[in-house]
Amino acid sequence: MHAYRTHTCAELTKQNVGDTVRLSGWVHRIRDHGGILFIDLRDHYGVTQVLCDPDSPAFAEVEKVRSEWCIRIDGTVKARDESLVNPKLPTGEIEVFVREIEVLGQSAELPLMVFGDQEYPEETRLRYRYLDLRREAMQKNMTLRSDVVSSMRKRMWDLNFREYQTPIITASSPEGARDFLVPSRLHPGKFYALPQAPQQFKQLIMMSGYDKYFQIAPCFRDEDPRADRSPTDFYQLDLEMSFVEQQDVFDTISPVIAGVFEEFGEGAKVDDPASWPQIPYKEAALKYGTDKPDLRNPIEMQDVSEHFRGSGFAIFAKLLEQEGTEIRAIPAPTGGSRKFCDRMNAFAQKEGLPGMGYIFWRDQGEGLEAAGPLAKNIGPERTEAIREQLGLGVGDAAFFLGGKPASFQRVAGKARDVIGEELGLTDKNRFAFAWIVDFPIYEKDEETGKIDFEHNPFSMPQGGMAALEGDPLAVKGFQYDLACNGYELVSGAIRNHKPELMLKAFEIAGYGEDEVKKRFQGLYNAFQYGAPPHGGCAAGIDRIVMLLAGTSNIREVIMFPMNQRAEDLMMAAPSDATSDQLMELSLRVIPQE
Question: 495 a known binding residue?
């Protein structure tokens, strides 16, 4: 007999009745039924009920065990009485009578219970992550993650991609986030960086003549934490292809993503990838207030500035006299009650805005009537024009925000989500995808006036050199994101593979030729030797699994995540370096004030 088990805790069935078996696992739950002890014994695969009474030679030892002790038992498989069968368990028709027990590992008093679904502070869960991970929901999440990664790999191999590994220690690169720097012992005063992504290396793989590349790649970014983003490291399905255009990348990755969501989405609807819309960035900002819209919600915002220009509502009328301002409406079908409108107005105030104007339409027995402060100020003619433009009727409402879009767009997007959620307009049983395209390559700092890259600096500008010689803020890139249910899942681009275009693109953002050649010497030099057109993308594995697991907290699907302050409470990281370590690296720590 094996030293620890003949079966897992999910394997035994009625076919095993009468067998002598050996099981190992953790004490999930203990119940004392009048001197008969019942233990739910758990391992990674499932739960088996074992029992012991005073007739068993092991009874005295079984009485001593406590929750989460790790034990081995030998016993005989018995059929449960029909009235005691548990149909929820694969092993629910049997139980094992314990004849021998060995304690493999005792447990101290538990800081959190594994049995049950009690809520614990996240700090406790992360400090004792090894216990938290024993819980059923976490076991399910981590198994899901592993299965998703396995499925992605298989799908990529089926598309004739090969997996290649890229370096983890490399040079610093401006890719939109802060680098984690690694001091060099052999080159005092110089630093490596952990890669924010394998961006340059995967492009160099294309330079090297490998037509298709993919990798399940770790990426490292020193970012401010959010619920849907890890503050230190994450994993992505990274891919690159030669001799492709934007649509080729879409046609390659879309079936992979759709297939994963169909396989693990537990029956939720996944639209055919051929029907996924391609929405220009500017249009997405106008209609949804974000470049990662939740299209399960049918609400689309509209510009209604003309209806307020010169109107009796002085706040909006004066706003529109300023350059670059507009008034945007958020339709709210079925939201036509003063109570709901007041609630949404309070939402806007919580988000830091003075409020949100509204109009709602009702039938007072004399036909359609527009109500609310805005309706009174702008009059029936303008109000009716707004209703017709938005396609609204009795029982509906509309909310209004104004100013420069940058000042209210984020709140407008959140308001759209809240309205869709509260009015039951958002289809919960669906994964709704959309490609966001035509991203601007550059942005302007409002305070300094400096032009910098808004997105990936290695993207091919639409229009080539001619576009770069015009207004930088008008330059669009062959850049794209795939949004799903309000999250960005995939980001990518067709790459700028021409050295003269690369120099010009970086020059606009303030990088001189010498600096570009120095900072990106591998990529720049490779472009001199017959660079193929190429492009690709990366899909965020953590975020995909988060959606499939039905959670909005990415730490629920990462085995050992950092907390919101980028700390590993379990391993006590980050930690102080010793004096010897610092001396060896030629470093000195300057104490913070």
Answer: yes
Measure the N-to-C terminal CA separation of the chain; round to a whole number of Å. 64
223 is in an annotated binding site: yes
Report the pLDDT value the prediction gives residue 226, as an integer from 0 to 100: 76
pLDDT given for residue 256 in this prediction: 98
Beta strands in 267-339 (DSSP E): 269-270, 278-280, 302-303, 326-332
Annotated binding-site residue? 72 = no
Strand, coil or helix: what is 437? Answer: strand
Cα 191–Cα 192–Cα 194 angle in degrees, nearest 5: 135
- In the sheet with 479-484, reading across from the earlier edge strand, the strands are 162-163, 212-220, 233-242, 534-540, 487-494, 479-484, 433-437, 278-280
Instruction: Report the chain's C-alpha Rg in angstroms.
Output: 30
Asked if 252 and 494 touch (Cβ cutoff 8 Å), the reply is no
For residues 216 and 189, is the Cβ–Cβ distance under 8 A?
no
Q: Are 539 and 487 in contact (CB under 8 A)?
A: no
Provide the CA 6 distance to its chain's centre, in angstroms.
40
Does 42 belong to an annotated binding site? no
CB 460 within 8 A of CB 510: no
175 is in an annotated binding site: yes
What is the separation of C-alpha 399 from the centre of its chain, rounded to a whole number of angstroms? 29
102 is in an annotated binding site: no
Tell whether residue 32 is among the known ligand binding residues.
no
Residue 156's alpha-carbon distances to 185, 239, 252, in angstroms, are 39, 9, 9
pLDDT in tens, 158-212: 999 999 999 999 988 766 678 999 999 999 999 999 999 999 999 999 999 999 9
Closest CA to 168 of 149, 187, 196: 196
Tell me how far apart the alpha carbons of residues 477 and 464 are, in angstroms, rounded to a whole number: 9
Measured between alpha carbons, how far is 204 from 497 in angstroms, rounded to an integer?
A: 10
What is the rounded (10 degree) CA torsion for 568, 569, 571, 575?
70
Contact by Cβ (8 Å): 219, 197 = yes
pLDDT at position 320, please? 94
Per-residue pLDDT at 227: 76
Contact indicator for 394, 361 with CB cutoff of 8 Å: yes
Q: State residue 239's pLDDT score.
A: 98
Burial 422-437 (b: 16+ CB within 10 A, else e): bbebbbeebbbbbbbb
Q: Tell me which residues of the chain have a pLDDT lower than 50.
A: none
| Phi then psi dihedrals of residue 490, to 5 deg | -135, 140
The pLDDT value recorded for residue 508 is 94
Annotated ligand binding at 145? The verdict is no
What integer pLDDT is reported at residue 175 of this predicted model? 62
pTM for this model (two decimals): 0.93
State how far the Cα of 593 lies from the Cα of 591, in Å rounded to an integer. Answer: 6
11: annotated binding-site residue?
Answer: no
The encoded tokens of residue 419 equal 């309205």
Q: Which amino acid is at 378?
A: I
Residue 176, pLDDT score: 64
Asked if 303 and 330 count as a contact pair (C-beta separation under 8 A), the reply is no
DSSP 215-265: EEEEEE-B---BTTB-SSEEEEEEEEEES--HHHHHHHHHHHHHHHHHHHS
